[in-house]
Design a protein that fits this description.
Elements (H helix, E strand, L loop, with lengths): L7 E6 L3 H12 L8 E7 L3 E3 L4 H6 L1 H6 L1 E3 L11 E4 L2 E6 L2 E4 L4 E3 L2 E4 L16 H17 L2 E5 L3 H13 L4 E5 L12 H13 L3 E3 L16 E7 L6 E9 L11 H7 L27 E2 L14 H21 L1 H6 L3 H8 L12 E6 L3 E6 L2 E3 L3 H12 L4 H5 L5 H6 L1
Parallel strand pairs: 1-2, 1-9, 2-5, 9-15, 10-11, 10-14, 11-12
Antiparallel strand pairs: 3-4, 6-7, 7-8, 13-14, 16-17, 17-18
Helix pairs in contact: 1-8
The structure holds flavin-adenine dinucleotide.
The site of flavin-adenine dinucleotide has 34 residues, from α1, β2, α5 and α8.
């Protein structure tokens, strides 16, 4: 309502799929008449890491270097929007967040897009490009020197990693152990699991289903390289290997919500997982705070939504809803005396996120792959190899991410 050019502060925490999509779309508004709008993007890392491309980065040092894109290149030069390289430590209240360095940021709208963390180096743990590249290199060197490799977890990541390791090192013994009776996410068809087993077999990977590998408590990230014997708890089998890669153990870290939970007197997260509860509009499930959005892997939507492209779609929905709230004058009214009225008026303004795409592309090395597109499973077929090669295997869609970082060349020169 009215004065589009009023001062509006939007803080986006996390600059990966969900956060980057939201931040880009919102920052673009300042060129469309919303001249007082400022987006502050906060990320604990100096660079975005293209985790989707990890299976390729693991076996291809040149690609690994390219898979880190600097956040300093995210906003156009001269724009008022800002990147802050800090970790969010606390959401203090309905208008402030506090960062690890003690800095407090004011927000009219907040996007929490802190995603999740698989164990390093599958999701690199280091917070700079140098540290991340080093983590992957260490594992790659471990593979170079190994005779045998054990991969635990037969979801998409485990299957892709097994395929790329076996393609790169055809003489090494590669074993993939999965606790379920089929590979790949179970919301997809059996045909792609069968196809993956056939194609991994062609690459010499031994696939073992229905066995849960016991992960010793001292199994930190660093101990992935080194001879170990792990035990299958279901079968009693012993798996001996020189390198172990865990493609299991995804976690979210959302303790930063504790102060807000304390002041509201209510929990905002799922107790067991820590995932943040959201409404279908991707707003935080706290009716009095309609200006906080939670897109991407950190929210409690089903596991079938935990994909990069869906996190990106959610980031766009969150940004679209924030624009609708801005247009309705929400932030102005919320700061005023009658915030309850502002909250009541906000509800009809926003729209729901719909998960309408059903797609998975799973490369296993540069030549083989399985896919499911619009309920059609492409498993053991040659068409699947062709499709996955064309759409994913070459650069794992890194090219598409680069458009988010237009100032990369300038950032490298500085
Ligand atoms: C190895 C691997 C392969 C994958 N392959 C595919 C694939 O082929 N296709 C696909 O669609 N999906 C794939 N995924 C899943 C996909 O990567 C995730 O669904 C996606 O990254 C989720 O995006 P997000 O923005 O929600 O969170 P994330 O990508 O997890 O990003 C969260 C961001 O927030 C930052 N952050 C976290 N906590 C804080 C904090 N407290 N303060 C400040 N910053 C913080 C992090 O540094 C990070 O930049 C893969 C995942 C992995 C690990």
């Amino acid at each position: 309502m009215g004065d589009k050019n009023r001062e509006i502060s939007i803080v986006v925490i996390g600059g990966s799929y969900a956060g980057a999509a939201a931040a880009k779309r919102l920052a673009a508004l300042s060129k469309k008449g919303y001249s007082g709008l400022k987006v502050t993007l906060v990320d604990k890392s100096t660079h975005y890491f293209h985790a989707i491309g990890f299976p390729k980065a693991l076996v291809d040092a040149e690609y690994a270097e390219k898979a880190f894109l600097p956040f300093s290149a995210f906003f156009e030069a001269g724009s008022k929007h800002e990147f802050v390289n800090q970790k969010l430590s606390r959401v203090v209240d309905e208008h402030h967040v506090e960062l690890d360095n003690g800095q407090t940021l004011y927000y009219d709208y907040l996007v929490l897009a802190t995603g999740g963390q698989a164990p390093g180096p599958i999701n690199v743990v280091g917070r700079t490009k140098e540290e991340g590249v080093q983590e992957i290199k260490q594992l790659r060197q471990g593979l170079d020197n190994a005779n045998s490799v054990l991969i635990v977890g037969g979801g998409a990541v485990g299957v892709e990693v097994a395929g790329f390791v076996a393609s790169k090192y055809p003489t090494k013994k590669v074993t993939l152990v999965h606790s379920r009776n089929r590979l790949l996410p179970e919301n997809f068809r059996q045909g792609i699991s069968n196809g993956a087993i056939t194609k991994l077999g062609r690459l010499g990977v031994k696939v073992i289903l229905n066995d849960k590998v016991e992960i010793p408590s001292d199994f930190g990230y660093a101990s992935n390289v080194g001879h170990r014997v792990l035990r299958g708890t279901t079968s009693g089998n012993e798996y001996e290997s020189d390198v172990q890669i865990l493609a299991v153990g995804f976690k979210v870290y959302t303790e930063y919500l504790e102060p807000l939970e304390a002041s509201l007197g209510q929990s905002l997260r799922v107790e067991r997982s820590g995932a943040i509860r959201v409404l279908p509009t991707l707003q935080l499930d706290a009716p009095m705070l309609p200006h906080i959005f939670v897109p991407g892997d950190v929210n409690n939507l089903p596991v079938s939504t935990k994909f990069g492209f869906k996190a990106e779609m959610q980031g766009n929905t969150a940004a679209g809803n924030i624009k609708k709230l801005i247009d309705s004058g929400f932030d102005k009214a919320f700061k005023g005396k009658d915030s309850a009225k502002a909250v009541a008026a906000a509800a009809p303004a926003v729209g729901k996120w719909t998960d309408y795409i059903d797609l998975i592309l799973v490369p296993m090395g540069p030549d083989l792959g399985v896919a499911q597109v619009l309920k059609i499973a492409l498993g053991a077929s040659g068409i699947a190899n062709f499709l996955v090669r064309q759409m994913k295997s070459k650069d794992f869609m890194l090219g598409m991410r680069k458009s988010y970082f237009p100032m990369t060349k300038k950032a490298k020169r500085e």
